Every structure is written in C-alpha cells, then in structure tokens.
Amino acid sequence: MPEPIVPPRKVSELVVERLTQRVERGEWPVGTRIPPEPELVAELGVGRNTVREAVRALEHAGILEPRRGDGTYVRAADGLDAALNRRARTTDAFHVLEVRGILERGAARAAAERDDPGVLARLDAALAAQVAARAGDEDAFQAADVAFHAEVVRAAGNPLLADLYDGLDHALVRSFPSGEQRRHHRAVPGHEEVVAAIRAHDPAAAEAAVAATIATVRAHLVEAARGAPDGPDVPGGSGARGARPTGGADESEAGA
C-alpha cells in the first residue's frame, strides 16, 4: 500500500521545536529572559517574521510571556508546567499549597526509602545554598528555597512527580503578594531535618519534617492575606488570590 505524502514542516514549527528544547533542557530556566529577536534571528538563520511567529506560538501555549518594554520571559518549563499554571491561576493559593504539600510529603517519604548517594549529595548542596541565602535578599532566598524543595521531590526518583511539583511550585511563588507581605520567615523549620531523615532512611521522620515546613508556610500565607489592604478579616484576602482555607486536616498542612 502506497505511503501518503507528508507535507514538509513549516520553518516556524521547527523554530518552535528548537526554542522549546532550550527551555526543557534548562538552558532558559523559568523566570529568565530569552535572547532578543535579532540574536535569535542570527542564531537560527531565519527571518524576523518566522521568529516572531514561533515566539507568539509559545506565548499562546503559556511557555513564554511577553513583558512590555522588557522583552520575553520563560513562564513555564514545558507544556505540562504551562497547563498547571493556567489551572492554578483559576484557584486560590491555599488549594495550590495543599496539593503541593501532598506531593512533597509523599516525595520525602519515597526519597527516604531509596539508597542513592548521588541524591544525598544533591540534597546537601541544595540545603547549603538555601541556608546561605537566608542572609541574602528576598529574591535570592526565594530562588534557593524553591530549588531545595524541588530537589527533595526529585529525590523520590519519579520524573512525572517532579514535573507536576515544578508546575505547582511556580504557580505558588507567583501567588504570594509583593512587598513586605511576601517575605518568608528565614527560620522556617524542617529543612535540615528532612535531609537528615532521608539520609537515615526514616520515611516517617522525613514526612514529619516536611509537615513542619508546611504548617509554617501556610501560616505566613494566612498572615499575608490578612494584611492585604482590601482583604477580608478571615484568612485569604486578595493578597492570596481570594483564598479561604476551610480548616481541614490536609489544608492545615498545605505545602512548603
């Protein structure tokens, strides 16, 4: 039976594929600005319109984000990340926090059941960076803190779990209000303890250490919501995307 003729792919589709690969490989991490249009044109050897079409397609997919007067930034690591971000934007921060907490507690337990020296080395490095950043500015601390928690999840050895967590993690970071209300407490407990528990292959202790960070981060989110200028008197003002925690057991242990 004759094979159907497949039409050649558009150049812009190939450019989309190339740019997507750079994001997925981490060459352009989430939150960074991609090279300007003239640089991409020279690098890829295609026309300006082709580059613009490809960038626009990735913007529609939620992977890139244009910022007026400041270039184009990476918004999501891949299509899954973008989909989770879109969904998370339609709910409140406490729900995102709750799901993150469920994933991270399970990941810490699974990581403690593994025996991988490489995992422990990466956790030690991420923890050291987080501890060092506690004396730095807010952006540096937040980046180091996010990286540490992501490393804990990756320590479980499940790539799909890591991808799910990363998408929710990015959504949670954007859900915190700006200014003083956004500041994390630099002495949130549990970080050193979770690494020690994973090293000791103690799943229960690892999960309990994560829960300690969960409770504290949720308390800061409640405080930020109450401090929002137009927020209600109950936890979950506009500073937390209108979140209203229901007080359930899981929600009191939401994410870290």
TrEMBL record:
InterPro entries xrefs: GntR_C, TF_FadR/GntR_C, Tscrpt_reg_HTH_GntR, WH-like_DNA-bd_sf, WH_DNA-bd_sf
Origin: domain of life: Bacteria
Keyword DNA-binding: yes
PROSITE patterns per record: HTH_GNTR (PS50949)
Keywords, comma-separated and alphabetical: DNA-binding, Transcription, Transcription regulation
Taxonomic source organism: Cellulosimicrobium composti
Name of the protein described by the UniProt record: FadR family transcriptional regulator
Family annotation (PANTHER family): REGULATORY PROTEIN GNTR HTH (PTHR43537:SF47), TRANSCRIPTIONAL REGULATOR, GNTR FAMILY (PTHR43537)
CDD domains, per the entry: WHTH_GntR
Ranges where the record places region Disordered: 226-256
Domain HTH gntR-type: residue ranges: 9-77
